[in-house]
Amino acid sequence: MKVEFYVFSGTGNTLKIAREVGKRLSEKGWEVNVRRMEGATGEEASDDSMVGLAFTTAFFSTYPVVLDFISKLPEGKGRKIFMVTTAAGATGGSEGKFRRMVESKGYVPVGSLAAIMPSNYNNRTLPAEKNSKLIEAGLEKARSFADDLVSGKAGWRRGIPLFPSMWHWFVTSGMALPFFYRFFPIQVDRNVCIRCLRCVNNCPAGALVAEDDAPVIRPKLCQNCQRCVAFCPVHAIGVPGKPLEQYHAMSFEEFIG
Ligand SMILES: Cc1cc2nc3c(=O)[nH]c(=O)nc-3n(C[C@H](O)[C@H](O)[C@H](O)COP(=O)(O)O)c2cc1C
């Protein structure tokens, strides 16, 4: 089986889980191509490929960049599809909403996985022990999900219709992000910033731009994915008053590799 596996990850949790699913599927003989949603369209998947989607749970839904990717996927034409999400606590049943979205495009849902991973918000690398236990359990779930996909035993939750729809509406209405940003504005400390522009070059929403060689945030575009905060090498970005050194699931080199 060929699989085109599209991944969005803010700070590495989802990427870690998706890579584990991909690795296990490959070990079972499937041909898996893990690629980023950023810069992809869904057209990369051939007619005989299964499609995989992996993305962060945010606001009991996901980020607008991901919703945009899913809504622009080409017609499924009966192709099989699976989804993987990671959350710090609960998806709020959003798998059901995503199921309806892909079904309406002509895809056949074959499995969904929601893995609980460490929170990537306001979480220092400590408590490292608790974080690593969650990660181990998440990776185990990833492997058994892959096994279930191969054996045809995986299922995709239908969920409840109203609650997830409400949150999807909240995100797509354009209200969720400014609301969040208003209370947790991300700022760059120019005195600490070393002008490496890692944040500018890796922001998935184009919300960071370089002005006089230093990053400047465009709040209206920020999706709060925390990538800039988590991977800043000198901890110059973050919400004032919150820990600037934040959890990320892997090194930056692994993340972009
Ligand atoms: C803005 C924002 C919103 C979030 N919303 C939720 C949520 O609704 N439910 C939840 O369980 N976790 C939520 N989380 C936590 C993340 O889903 C979780 O840590 C995830 O594993 C991060 O994955 P990533 O590193 O691939 O982006 C949120 C995190 C952020 C930054």
Q: How would you explain this protein's 3D organization?
A:
The protein has helices spanning 13-27, 64-71, 94-103, 128-151, 162-172, 176-183, 198-202, 227-231, 252-256, and strands at 2-7, 31-36, 49-56, 80-87, 108-116, 187-188, 208-211, 214-217, 237-238. It starts with a strand and ends with a helix. The strands form three sheets. Strands 2-1-3-4-5 form a five-stranded parallel beta sheet, sandwiched between helices. A two-stranded antiparallel sheet has the order 6-9. A two-stranded antiparallel sheet has the order 7-8. Helix 1 runs parallel beside helix 4 (128-151) and helix 3 (94-103) packs across helix 5. By secondary structure, it is α/β, with parallel strands linked by helices. The protein folds into two domains: 2-167, Rossmann fold (3-Layer(aba) Sandwich); 185-256, Alpha-Beta Plaits (2-Layer Sandwich). It is globular and about 55 Å long. Residues 9-14, 56-60, 86-90, 117, 119-121, 180, 224-226, 249 line the site of flavin mononucleotide.
What brief labels describe this structure?
Alpha-Beta Plaits; alpha/beta; 257 residues; five-stranded parallel sheet; binds flavin mononucleotide; 2 domains; two-stranded antiparallel ribbon; Rossmann fold
